[in-house]
Design brief:
The chain has about 160 residues and is α+β, with helices and mostly antiparallel strands. The protein has two domains: about 10-60, no CATH class; about 65-160, no CATH class. The chain is built from seven helices and six strands. The strands form two sheets. It has a four-stranded antiparallel sheet, with no helix packed on it. A two-stranded antiparallel sheet has the order 1-2. Helix 3 packs across helix 4. It starts with 7 loop residues before the first strand and ends with a helix.
Length: about 160
């Protein structure tokens, strides 16, 4: 699916640069297992620069849960049993999707909504558990100390709260 999408390249000083693929007024990059990023570009010059502040990144969240998405939303009791079943049923035939139907669009929206709900719950557990790693471990986050350390290092609000 992502064949031909660029990886990182190195400039002459050896620092990593993102090599974008350009499509219309957008720059796109994909780092497998890490993230997918889209940014708007200024098309007024020969090599369109990314417009500062326009980038949006979707990070891979699998590493936080170390299990399949369906298992994670089930373990964390995200949403209803019926909607989790719809997601589980549609996971298997995804490789057969050949065109966007109303059913596929509905499934994709549902899955995105559940991912947002799961990550919101994840953030809340991290926030609640900043002085209580047991709260994270009860949710199946086996190495909560490593997650907490990484999360708190990157989130000023959590650092201020005494992570």
């Amino acid at each position: 699916m992502w064949v031909g999408f660029p990886r990182f390249c190195r400039n002459c000083r050896g620092t990593a640069l993102v090599d974008y693929t350009y499509w219309g007024d957008y720059a796109i990059t994909y780092q497998q297992g890490q993230y997918f990023r889209v940014a708007r570009v200024d098309r007024s010059g020969p090599r369109p620069p990314v417009i500062k502040g326009s980038s949006r990144t979707v990070y891979e969240t699998f590493g936080f849960f170390q299990c399949a998405f369906v298992k994670a939303i089930d373990d964390w009791k995200i949403g209803s049993d019926e909607e989790r079943a719809i997601i589980a049923e549609n996971k298997m035939p995804r490789h057969e999707f050949s065109k966007l139907t109303d059913g596929i669009i509905g499934y994709c929206k549902l899955e995105c909504r559940y991912l947002a709900m799961l990550m919101t719950e994840f953030r809340e557990v991290l926030h609640d558990g900043r002085n209580n790693t047991g709260a994270m471990e009860r949710r199946g986050l086996a190495d909560s100390s490593a997650i907490k350390e990484t999360w708190c290092a990157k989130a000023p609000a959590y650092r201020e709260g005494g992570c």
